[in-house]
Amino acid sequence: MEMRWEEAGWERLTGRAGRRRLPVWDCTVGLVVGDDSVLLIDPGSSVREGAGIRAEVERLAGRHVTHIAFTHGHFDHVLGGSAFAGAQFYGAVGLDRLVGTSAGREELRVSAVAQGLAEEEAAEACDLLKAPGHLVSGEWTLELGGVQVLLANVGPAHSQHDLAVFVPGERETVFCGDLVEESGEPQAGSDAVPGQWPAALDRLLSLGGEDALYVPGHGAVVDADFVRAQRATLADRFGVSRACGRPRS
């Protein structure tokens, strides 16, 4: 089936994969369409936004979203998951303790409101949010029918629970989450582990290789040279050795 990605506001990356840059926080939502299953990566920031994405994907793919992967646990990447009842959720080990507990959901709510999400929308999304039932400690292969997607736990770095998604194809595609940002400087909040961030980018580069498409959490799709340059910038910013990824003494 020929899917009209661009007409629906999506950027088609390969025959199986695409993405959309969402408004307000410029967060990327990724999509991988298999013969049997559909994977969504980072489903937006609210129930309303997630429901809109769900409807668009169903029109594009002709079927429901079956799998959702969270690249990390920040509100703009996870709260849209509340609109996807029935999907299987995946995240890095430990993410369930953030999104699956009252304290963790309250933290997400407070962060979302502080960043501009309406109080009512934040509360609704947090109340309905489902913790990932599939936790990735190393790597996890998803068979979607005609394409195998690799989920790789590459953190902690930008957050405590960073997950990358590697999609093979005519051109390999790596969904990086906020480990890579193109539209602004990478953000290191209180949950970041700066000393390990350059090593996480090394892992992304080893997954994708020289010719891959690297999809940042915010901004335009980039190449391996951009990821390397951002790695060098972060290494200098956080005082980490470029050679081995260890903090300088």
Structure description:
This protein has 249 residues and is α/β, with parallel strands linked by helices. The protein has helices at 47-61, 75-78, 95-99, 102-114, 119-128, 197-208, 224-238, and strands spanning 11-12, 17-21, 28-33, 38-41, 67-69, 88-92, 134-136, 139-143, 148-153, 163-167, 173-181, 213-218. The strands form two sheets. The chain has a seven-stranded mixed beta sheet, with no helix packed on it. A five-stranded mixed beta sheet has the order 8-9-10-11-12, covered by helices on one side. Strand 11 (173-181), helix 6 (197-208) and strand 12 (213-218) form a beta-alpha-beta unit. The longest helix has 15 residues, at 47-61. The chain is globular and about 45 Å long. The model is unreliable at 243-249 (pLDDT under 50).
